[in-house]
Amino acid sequence: MRDLARLFHSLEDETRLRILALLLATGELCVCDLIAALQLPQSTVSRHLAHLKNAGWLKDRREGVWIYYAIEPALPTLHDTLLPALRACLRESDHGQADLARLQGFGAGNRCA
């Protein structure tokens, strides 16, 4: 029951939903990309990323000093069941569309350099 509560608690915050929307749309992003797209401080973004990772939504990888996040490919069953509904809802979100447009406005290439 505790895992179920953690899962739904991870989805109750707007910032965490915005992060999920960006990752669902792009595949993988560096923390600096998320900071720029969300226009939030690094500490806030990192706290929400840790929450999503602890709830089983995300995986991370380190490349030099940068940490990249993506949706966990081997999601638990309940997560995997909720993912299509989340994807559909978040795709239509005004915040999600604005965040994605802001991210795309930074252009391709290494935004973290």
Count of distinct structural domains:
1
Query: Order of strands side by side in the largest beta sheet?
Result: 1-3-2
Principal-axis shape equals: globular
The overall average pLDDT, rounded, is 89
- Distance from first to last alpha carbon: 43 Å
Biggest sheet character: 3 strands, antiparallel
CATH-defined fold name: Arc Repressor Mutant, subunit A
Helix and strand element order: HHEHHEEHH
* Cα radius of gyration in angstroms: 13 Å
CATH superfamily: Winged helix-like DNA-binding domain superfamily/Winged helix DNA-binding domain
Oligomer: single chain
The portion of residues forming beta strands comes to 5-15%
Level-2 CATH architecture = Orthogonal Bundle
Total strands: the figure is: 3
CATH class: Mainly Alpha
Main structural class: alpha+beta
Word description of this protein:
By secondary structure, the protein is an alpha+beta fold. The chain has a single domain (2-104), classed as Winged helix-like DNA-binding domain superfamily/Winged helix DNA-binding domain (Arc Repressor Mutant, subunit A), CATH 1.10.10.10. It has helices at residues 2-10, 14-26, 31-38, 42-54, 77-91, 94-105; strands at residues 28-30, 58-63, 66-71. It has a 3-stranded antiparallel beta sheet with strand order 1-3-2. The radius of gyration is 13 Å and the shape is globular. 19% of the residues are buried. The model has no long low-confidence stretch (mean pLDDT 89). It comes from Geotalea uraniireducens. This is Transcriptional regulator. It holds the Pfam family HTH_5.
